[in-house]
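[INFO] parsing input record for Glucose 1-dehydrogenase
[DEBUG] input buffer:
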Amino acid sequence: MSLQESSLQGQVALVTGSAQGIGKAIAVRLAQEGADIIIVDRADDNRAEEVLSEIKALGRRVIIDAGNIADVADNKRIISDSVAQMGRIDILVNNAGIERRAPFLDITEEDYNAVLNVDLKGTFFITQAMVQHLRDTNRPGRIINISSVHEELPFPHFSTYCASKGGLKMLMRNLAVELAPHGITVNNIAPGAVETPINSKLLNSPELLAALIGNIPLGRLGKPADVAGMVAYLAGPDSAYVTGATMVIDGGLLWNYSEQ
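[DEBUG] output buffer:
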């Protein structure tokens, strides 16, 4: 697809957590579709610079805006700085997320705050800042949240993560209704098991990996590109009438999963 034919030509997309894994794949795919990109991650490090170089090679404008998604003031700064540098933002992809494994009785307040502040609170307030920008400029926009099958599926020992993703499901549904009159669509993407750094322990354990793949009807883990393709759809013109939906990308895992 040439830039002249690209579905996102002239659009600017901000992707949180885009220095690696799913976020990197999303940023690159949106650039391939013609969008200019704002890379947001905790630090402007070698990983972020590599993504920047890859997107520049596609002929797109791109910047890095490092910041802490868990901090409300930093979220507002990220949006205002990015608008000052890029002129506008049309698409927000809330991809940044963390998880911590612990039995429920052992979860500390620090564990709870770490996960909920990034996965739910951070998404809430960077979305609020983005919507304020769209309102002030009287433009429509797209909000796409990278959720998880665990917005539906229980996951023992990951109560904080499941709580954040369950909250994200209802936040998305509520905002879809509230923001539709402004021409802003809001959707979730719920990946299952994907080959990313967050799953490094799983990928390095043949026994755990085999048990999980046994629960996936398509017989393989997902790849970051599988998720990025759905983001490209939700960001593009073909999804103009889609809002308030969760798109599950899991190879059939959600409806086939059972604890061993």
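[INFO] Residues 12-251 form a domain with the Rossmann fold fold (CATH 3.40.50.720).
[INFO] shutting down worker
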